[in-house]
Write a structure and sequence with these properties.
Strand content: under 5%
Largest sheet: none
Radius of gyration: 15 Å
Number of helices: 7
Length: 123
């Protein structure tokens, strides 16, 4: 276990932090490759997940889908509150994917309505 921890910490310090910082400026294909690499290192998932949520504002559908997949794989429920606004996305399929992710991250089954999620997560 210690060997794994040392290896993960070294990767985070040498590559992970800078990769995360560059995400907003990367082209969609680069972001998708970076997400694939980031989810292979779950030790820092709580630091990575909020940055991935920020990618949901981008227009490229494949990038948004990859970001949702990465969030699902990381499993950090800490971003649940930040995901609520995306339930109201005009793209219904995307909104459904966000809803499924919220249900999985929180282990709750609520309707696909932002207000319902806000009330439950606020309590």
């Amino acid at each position: 276990w210690r060997r794994w921890l040392t290896k993960e910490t070294a990767w985070w310090e040498s590559e992970g932090v800078s990769m995360l910082e560059r995400l907003p400026e990367m082209e969609p294909a680069e972001v998708i490759a970076a997400l694939t690499e980031l989810v292979r290192h779950p030790l820092y998932r709580h630091q990575v997940a909020p940055m991935i949520v920020g990618l949901l504002d981008r227009e490229a559908p494949e990038l948004r889908s990859a970001a949702l997949t990465a969030l699902q794989r990381l499993g950090s429920a800490r971003v649940a509150g930040a995901l609520i606004e995306y339930l109201e996305d005009p793209n219904e399929e995307f909104s459904k994917q966000v809803h499924a992710l919220l249900c999985a991250l929180t282990d709750r089954t609520l309707p696909r309505q932002a207000m319902a999620w806000r009330v439950v997560l606020a309590s």
